Structure formats: structure tokens, C-alpha cells
């Protein structure tokens, strides 16, 4: 097994990811077992196997890159990330379930999602910036640059529009800032405009929240600069008041997804369909599930996107609560392993990159799994290692390679 | 950035781990809520998602005759229907089904029309699929979304037209029926009994329809078998066993005068069970199964001979001479005549009472007659005197008691009550006059305001064949599933309820039967005697206003083995017989042949084609047995006949003397 240890770098992390990838292929196979077979979905598991091969090669290459190169290359990589994102807005094409959305760039035979590259770029850029500083951010003003570093690619992704992936950038920002030692109070204040935006859908709730925030800022007057306090209050006020214009600027399908999240019965045959059928699939799985490949919701084509975004619904329907718990536990183990690796490393840049990866995956896992069971809105982001999709699998394994590379002491 | 102290890193890692743990627990918790706490509800939803309920009609109960022979049962048949869908999709599917099911263009158009009328109901495309159509559909099921096959038991009537009126028929439940309280719990599209026994015993025969589930996918395509999976099997309806004799019924259908209208009712003397109930012309109930065509329905309804009209229970005819037995029974009951005594006035062709002269049918007269002789000769003059003794009021009263203006209570959905005055007030109410006492001369010979159904007359003659009591005639004999169940029930017939009773001493009944016997042996129906059985009865020829020269021909009588009790009561009416024909020539042969057939079968004798004296004569076979009867019958023996002088002797006459000079 020494060759495995040498190849994997971190045997535990790679083992978890291999386990998840193989399980993912099995679930993709199951997702293709339909009563009225669809040729595309039926063969998806074979293509996913091929992509896993590609991903493992990618992983091997990434782990062989010297750590210094990565640190040096962080800034250029960040810039490249911005460029491809901008390019995507100009020449991007739609594909798969999101055909009307320009998320893809075609490079001859290869097609990739710039937002995947941008995630990596954002992680590296942010980690590089924070590692280069002497001290952790000690006030709100020092969070402006990190927020902008993430905010620019995030904004470009929102313009695509791809809300789900945009949330992954938020995850990166907060995870990296947390590990850099930013006081939780500042993280909360940074997040508060976003919170205000969500709460603004109910004026009374938002008003109460806003008054509490103002009171809190007043109590903290000796720890905050006046400018900072004003900025926080104004940002929250703005978030609360611009909610309506923002809402109006959303695309119809985005509005529908939010509305349906609030009331899935609103249009059961239309916008609510995905959510309702996913909840039915999961709920009817019960404790032990209907059995591998036996899910009726999936088999009879009630479940949408069953091999991509809603692969976890298949897990829920066929393997039941027991299977779901095991899979979530394995995901938890994966994330915890990243925390452990970050704790162990003595290189500040490496620790920050590891937490950036953690941020991306945490958002993907929580939002994807959460949307299948109806606790977060449907945002159309895939589940790492399980969802079908070549670019995404390769990106995930590249991140695994990056994590292994960063975790290795030199 | 300086690398933080390991303790600080550990604290941050612990914080991160806590956050992760909380988020993962939130996920697990919401799955717990959805899958374990509310799992059952979601599982139901998942089933209702994928399963469509298809009703499975229950086979109706089988109807058996008294010998366990099947009269009505079911054969499997398949029908093909479409689930509701968009109009385009229905039209497209029909277009592709057209060559497979051999649907005509018009049929497809009609189907589209009925689809547009009720878009939410499954559309029944074709019933009674042929085997090859069925096979092709099952094979191509993947290409036919929304098509489902349904096994419907199809009613099969064995007896054909012979049993049309008794059985009735089944059909799809109508909108009106669905609203009536009787059909509570019935659903659109169910097959129910429309008339006849099918209607009468609908609840018993119906059964409880079962349920099948067809698994459908998200776009409504049926996956798996087009017939679905059985979830709850239908509970077949209960079988019923009838008193009816299938072969007798068929035999009557065969021998009933060709092209004539009329009815035959045969009752079992023992228990009042209906052995045969036939109305001519008849119809074949099989025509109604699966829907009768509009043209055929119209033809049946517009036929002037009214084939859908069950004459045996709703046809009312003046009973004419057959009613003289009722007059005689009432007089005997009242004690105003003696069965052996002669009437004081001999018949000279007419009789005068209270200024009214009424004729006998035979203008040359019958001379002195006692009861039996008067019945045999059907002498009106005897009965005028009898009626005067009874009196109009008592005659009407007793006629009511015997139920001549009521229904018999047969177990069929429709039965007419006879027309008969309910009291002397009837004349006042209807004709605005008090009836004179001489009105009795009309009533006593079965004329006047009196018309009866063949069933009622059969019930009356049934009482004469028994001890004077009569039951409500019943078709239903027993419940119990399987052909053998009827025989088991026959072993324990129970005690049928008596509907009414004639208070007649046995010798009085014997005298009435003797009179009826003489009708056959020496009277009007001589040519309808049969060799082996004691067939007795009264003929009648009823004039009616519709056609003066074409009267209705009656025969009402009884039959049984010689020297034994009567076993079958039989009434035959033939409407509007040819001029010169009457009860003895048109109705009596049918009754005698039917009785002969029934008794021969009952006693294991071979059925012969040549039965009556008339048939023997036509075939050139001598009938010494008929001549012998004339001379050996006790009542015809002059030595046994009561002395006319007895009746004339006032001292020996216990009856009131005729008041007339």
C-alpha cells in the first residue's frame, strides 16, 4: 500500500473522495434505470467512470506541482479566472438543464465552466492576499479588500446568472476569513447585509432585525469606527430597501425557485414540480429506502435531473434515512479532514487554501442536499463527487489534489 | 502572516468542526423529519403519484333454473379505454388505434365527441375485443400511452327470446338512476339490471367491484401491464335460483301460436313458484348486452305488437268464462249453492231477472245443470241464478278479498293490479249510478268492469288446485352459490306465506275440479286432452271493444297425475284470435301441451311430439283413452249424478229458493 500512500499524499482524504466518487457512479447508474429508458441518462455512469479516470490524472498532476509554484501562481491564476469569467459573459453558451444560461465556454473539443476555474482562482487569490499580511484582519475596513477579491468574480457569476455557484464564493470568503482569524463579530457584520436582504421579504421581521442591529452597533461603539458603524447600518438599510428592485431584476426561473421554496404547492406541475417530486421521493424512501435502483419516483420519471442536481433524492428514495445519514456522515468526515489538515499545517497560505476548499464544498453539499429535502431554495448546484458532470468532477478532484499538495509539509 | 500558535489553530479548528457538525445535523434532522416522521404520508403521495385506480367490474351473480341449469351467466370480455389527456393526444392515439381495432371514421368522430363532453372521464373506445386485437395491444403497449385494457364480465343469456321478459336485461346505469336513492353508491359506467329479474334482484346480483392499479409515469404512460395489478379482487354477485323451468319456458316459446300475441303463466301448485312466465312476442335480452343500437331500440319500441310489454304481468284482459270459477267458489263459500244440487230453472237459452233478459251463449239451452255440469257447459243461465243468490254486494266483496283488484306480489319490478270494483260505490264513482241488483248477472260470468292479468288468473286457479289457499307467485326460489345450491334449498322449502284463502270444504273443491275435468273430457276443450295426465281447466273467449270479431282466447287450468293432487296451474291467453277461434281451439292446446311437457319431464317420461287428441287425430292415431274417460268418469256416470228432483224438493233444499216466480 505504500504506492497508494505515495500517490495519494493524504491517504484518508483521497480514500473518502474515492469512496464518494465510486458511490456516485453507482447512484448515477441507478438514476439511469428507468421504466422508459432515456439513452443519455442510461449511459451516464459509463461516461462518469471515464471522467473519474481523467479526474484522477488531473489529481495526480496537481499533487506533483511544487507548493511554491502554486503560491507564486496565485495572483496570475486569479487574474486568469476573472478573464475567463468575463469571457463567459460574452461568448458563453448554455448546456444541459440550464440551456438558456451562458455558463459554458467551448474550446474546440473541450467545454468547461469558467465559474469552476474562478472558484479555484478566488481561493488562491484570497489565500495569497491574507497570507501576505502580517496580522489577521482586525477591523471591518481590513475586510474590504478580501470582500472585493471574492466579490468581483462573484458578481461576474451572478451576471451569468448562476446564483448557486455565486453562493460558493460566499462560502470561500467566510471560510478563509474565519481561518485567517477574523473575529466572528466582524464576520457577522460582514454577513449582515445579506441577512437583511433575506429578511426584507417580511417588512416587520426586517424592521425588528434592523432596530436590533442599530442597537448592537451602538453598544459596540467603542470597538467600531464610526465609518464602519455607518457603513454596516447603511448597507443593511440598503439591502432591506433594494430587495424589491433586486427581486424585479431576477430572471423568472429564479423568482419561481424562491417562490416555490416558500410554497411548493404554488404550481405543482410547473415550478414546484422539482421540489415536490424530490420531497415525495425522499419522504417515501422511509427508514431503509425502496432498494438500490428500485425508486419509483425516479423509475417513473417523476424525479427531475435525477442524475445531476437531484442525485441525492435518488439516494434518499432508494437507500432511505439510513443511507442518507451515512452519506452525510461521509461528507462531514471529508470536511472535517480538511479542518484537520489545516490545523496541522504550519504554512499560513496552505491552511487558508484548505479552508477555501472547505468553503466551496460546504456550500455545495449543504445547498444541494438541503434543496432536495426542501430546507433551502433550489439553486441548481451539483453535489461534489456524486452528481454527474465531467468538468465538475475534474474540478473537485483538482481541489482534492490542491488540498493534498497544500497539506504536505515541505 | 505569521503562523498562529498551535493552541489558537486547535481552537479555530474546534470551532470549525462545531459549525460543520451543526450544519450536518441540520441536514440529517430534516431528512429524519421527512423520511421517518412523515415517511408514511410521503409514501402515500408517492403511490398516488404513480398509481391510477382502475375499477374492476364484478361478475353478476349467475341465475339458475329450478334444476340448476344456467339461465344467465357471464363470459369474460375485454374493453379498451383511454385515460383522460389533452385532446391532441387523444386524437393522435385514436388515429393509431384505428387500424388495430378496426374503428370506422364515424366511430372515431363519435369518440372524440364523447371525449369533449366529459374530458375527465376515461374514454371507452371499444368493448368485446377480439383475441387478436387484445394480443396486438398488449404487445404494442409501450407505444400507446394512456391506453388501458379492462376485463369486463359480459352477461350471457342462455334462453334467448324465451326468457326475455322474465330475465329483463342489463345496461349502463343512466343519469336518472344514479340520482335515485336505490342506486346510492353506484358509479358512472356501472352495469345494472334494467327490467325483469335483473332489476328485481339487482342488489343481490351486482356484487362489489374490485380495484386495480395501473402504474403510470410522469407523463401518464402506463408502465407494466395495460390491465394493471389487482389490488382488491371484485366480489362476484350472489347467484340466485329460480322456480322457473328453463326447458318448459323454451318449450312454451316454441309451441306458442306463431305470430300471435299473448302470454302463458305456469305455477307450481305445491309452493306457488313460477314454473314459466312467457309473453309473446318476446325479445332476445342478449341484444341489450353491451348496448343496443339506436335503430333496434326504436324498432322494438315502435313495433305495434309491443314486444317489450310483458303481457303475463301487465297485460289486463276481460277474464270471461274463466272467471265463472271464481263466482262458483264464492257461492260455495257463502253456502248459497250445493255442489251437487241443480238450479231450479233449467237453461232454455236465456234468463230474465228484474226486467233484464240475459242470454246463454248457447241459444238452444243446456237444460238442468248442477255445478259441475254448468262449468263443463259454461252455462250462463246457471251462473245468473248463482250470482243472484250470492248478490252483487257479496260478489264484489269476496272478489276483493281474493284480490281481483290487487297485485299478486310477484317478484318482478312491474306488475299490474286487476281491474275490479272495490265496492258498490265504484259504479257511483265511475258511472254515476247505483248498480241495480241485476248487474250481478254481468259480473258473475266474468264480464263487466273486470279485467285481470294472466298471472292473477293463474294464482286463482292455483288455489283451486290446492286447499283453497294461494301464495304470492315467486320466481326466486333460493340464494346460494353454485348450481347445486338450489337443490339443497328445495329439500327444505320452508313454509311459503299464504296470500289469501278460499274457505272451501274438500268436497266443494272436488266439485269445482270435477267441473273443470268435464270441460276437458266432454266439454269445450275435449280435443286438448292428453294421454297420461289429468289436465283440467276452463276455456274463455273474451269479446273486447278493440276488435269485435277477434276475441281473446283464454285457458285457465290445472294438471297432475291421474288420481293424485294437482301439480301445475297454467293460464294461457292468446290475443285476438281468428274469427271462429276461441279458448278451446287457441289457448287450451298450448296449456295442455305445456302441462304435458312439464309432467313428462318431471316423471321421467319421454316427451312426444304428438300430445293432444287433436294432434293424434291429425296424425291418424286413435285415442281410445279419451273416449274411455267420458264413460268412466264418476261425475259423468248418470247413477252418480244427483237427482234433479232433489233440487226441486223444497224440503230437501237447504238453499234459499229462487225468489222469482
Describe the model.
The complex is a heterodimer of chains A (410) and B (661). Chain A is mainly alpha-helical and 410 residues long. Chain A has one domain. Chain A is built from 17 helices and two strands. Chain A has a two-stranded antiparallel sheet. In chain A, helix 6 (114-131) packs across helix 16 (348-373), helix 7 (144-159) runs antiparallel to helix 8 (163-179) and helix 15 packs antiparallel against helix 16 (348-373). Helices cover 38% and strands 18% of the residues of chain B. In chain B, the strands form six sheets. In chain B, strands 2, 3, 4, 5, 11 and 17 form a six-stranded mixed β-sheet that branches. In chain B, helix 13 (324-334) crosses helix 15. Chain B starts with 5 loop residues before the first helix and ends in a 13-residue tail after the last helix. The interface between A and B is large, with 56 and 44 residues.
Look at the structure and name the CATH superfamily of the largest domain in chain B: DD-peptidase/beta-lactamase superfamily
The order of strands across the largest sheet of chain A is 1-2
Shape descriptor of chain B reads elongated
Determine the mean pLDDT of chain A. Answer: 86
Most extensive interface: A-B, 56 and 44 residues
Q: H/E order of the elements of chain A?
A: HHHHHEEHHHHHHHHHHHH
Query: What's the architecture of the largest domain in chain B in CATH terms?
Result: 3-Layer(aba) Sandwich
Number of helices of chain B: 25
- Oligomer designation: heterodimer
Main sheet attributes: strand count, strand direction, barrel closure of chain B: 6 strands, mixed
Number of H- or I-type helical stretches of chain A: 17
**Strand residues, percent of chain B:** 15-25%
Average the pLDDT over all residues of chain B and give the rounded result: 84
Structural class of chain B: alpha+beta
Uncertain ranges of chain A: none
* Name of the level-1 CATH class of the largest domain in chain B: Alpha Beta
Instruction: State the domain count of chain B.
Output: 2
